[in-house]
From TrEMBL:
Protein name as it appears in the record: Uncharacterized protein
Lineage of the species this protein comes from: Eukaryota, Viridiplantae, Streptophyta, Embryophyta, Tracheophyta
Length: 109
């Protein structure tokens, strides 16, 4: 009698071990998918930040060209004010560490 119960218990344990192994594999697959999604999101964020920087630089250049064409040299202070404003705003928003790492990887290549 005890050997039958032991055999049944052993079978149940094997089934549970198999189920646990499958669950662990599913979790690992989900984790890989989440990591890939995060890498994609970081890449998109870096691209957007680079676009913002380019737009800010172009705005400063355009303002400089506009103001320098309308005012004699030395009387144009708007581009300097804009430059200070943009650099202050850019420094106020610190990117997350993952974004910085991704940006360093992109700019290093």
């Amino acid at each position: 009698m005890k050997s039958k119960e032991l055999l049944k218990s052993s079978i149940v344990v094997k089934k549970h071990e198999f189920h646990v192994k499958n669950l662990e594999e599913d979790l690992e697959n989900q984790a890989r998918g989440i990591e890939a999604d995060m890498e994609d999101l970081v890449g998109v964020k870096v691209d957007q930040e680079q676009k913002v920087i380019r737009v800010e630089e172009n705005l400063i250049k355009d303002a400089w060209l506009l103001m320098s064409s309308k005012f004699p040299r030395g009387q144009c202070v708007l581009p300097a004010i804009l430059l200070v404003e943009f650099s202050t705003n850019a420094n106020a928003v610190a990117p997350c560490p993952k974004t910085l790492m991704a940006h360093k990887k992109i700019t290093a290549t």
